[in-house]
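Observation: inputs received (chain + protoporphyrin IX containing FE).
Thought: call the complex predictor directly.
Action: predict_structure
Action Input:
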Amino acid sequence: MDTATASFRPPAPSPRQKPPSTLQMMRIVYRNPLELWGEPSYNEPWISISGGIGGPLLIANDPGLIRHILVDNAKNYKMARVRQKILRPILRDGLLTAEGEVWRRSRKAMAPVFTPRHIAGFARPMLKEAEAFAARYEERIGGTTDVSRDMTMLTFDILAETLFSGEIAGEPDSFAHQVDRLFETMGRVDPLDLLGAPDWLPRVTRILGRNSLAFFRDIVARTMEMRKEKLARKDEAPEDFLTLLLRAEGPDGLARQEIEDNIITFIGAGHETTARALGWTLYCLANLPEERARIEAEIDAVLASEPDPVKWLDLMPLARAAFEEAMRLYPPAPSINREAIHGDTYADLEIPKGMQVLVMPWTVHRHRKLWDDPEAYRPSRFHPENREQIGRFQYLPFGAGPRVCIGATFAMQEAVIAMAVLMSRYRFDLLPETKPWPVQKLTTQPQGGLPMKVSRR
Ligand code: HEM
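Observation:
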């Protein structure tokens, strides 16, 4: 089969043929917002709704309009209320939820943490963790494993290692457990938030997470103290995120509390996202065995000649393309939400003050006017010779503009290293029960998991 045409259509909700009632809408938003969108959302450049449940709403699909909102007039758009209500209680002034001057100062202070040199320095720990994780499959050869769950564990191990180098206060296992609980209970859109209910009304969806949050913050605070003491003693400290963040502490840099908020932000933003994309990649490739075989051959050739994992991202364009195409169809962050600070216009579109603006990678990446056969998983779209045809503002897995994902290079490097380690040793195949359904929680998750058969290559 020719890779240029190799494709398959992975599961996704069909566009709605008629708008749901308000009650139905609330139910869908709670259960799975991806099921909300109708035909126009996948066909029109934008949809402006004046009487939405949370006030006027704009769905922006047109690349020019997206550029206007996220880049050219970004200063007029703040983080949307609903998103802040869900995330701020957990992440406080971490970079993802900070606004205004705090955000500007933090982003500047954090730039040195994410330099190419530091990201390159993380390649070895990423490889070490991926290899240690992969070895666990040896006991499961011929059996079934939930690849989705596995990828969360793998990216968590990588993040924990690059954050703290294993120097965590308390038991690492209890830390992992608290992370799980926290995001399971706190990451949900509460119907009360959508209705704009006042903050003092308790959100059942979040109460359960509070103990977890307190426990978790305590571990992070103690871990920071341990490291600070080590640095003060001038003991040799690892060059991980924690050391780099502590170096950014100071009057023009980060306050102590902000360092804690950012560690929690990295954990929140930096492992589930990559895990989801890796899981969907392995699932999609199991449906395209010929493409998978080509990627395996690419990986084998690179591993035989280039031991330095820093170089792999550039040397494995087919693996990278498979991952990028999985993020097109299943963007880990399916919706980027903003709110207009002042009234604005774009072409003949009026954007009133306070309008909620959705730039949804989910609909933009599946838009009929922007992509040929949008529902097909076709990695060749991202092969180097085709890559230029994809406009900057039609493919936004990491967002765009001043608030673009600060961890994008980290994530891409991590993904290709993980794919190289896993796919050089094992093959993950479909089972009759492999029937994932994409559901939007904080990320685009496969409901039902990804049960797959693991075998040695
Ligand atoms: C495949 C993996 C990832 C995806 C798809 C992803 C996606 C995104 C997106 C779409 C945004 C922009 C949100 C907005 O504009 O509202 C964002 C922001 C952010 N991401 Fe990522 N991310 C990934 C991995 C990571 C990693 C590994 C880290 C950290 C180690 C990270 C940390 C952040 C932070 C701190 C922000 C906020 C930046 C700011 O507002 O200045 N992300 N991410």
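Thought: report the result.
Final Answer: The pocket of protoporphyrin IX containing FE is lined by residues 95-96, 107, 265-266, 269-270, 273-274, 277, 332-333, 336, 397-399, 403, 405-407, 410-411 (CB under 6 Å). The chain has a mean pLDDT of 91.
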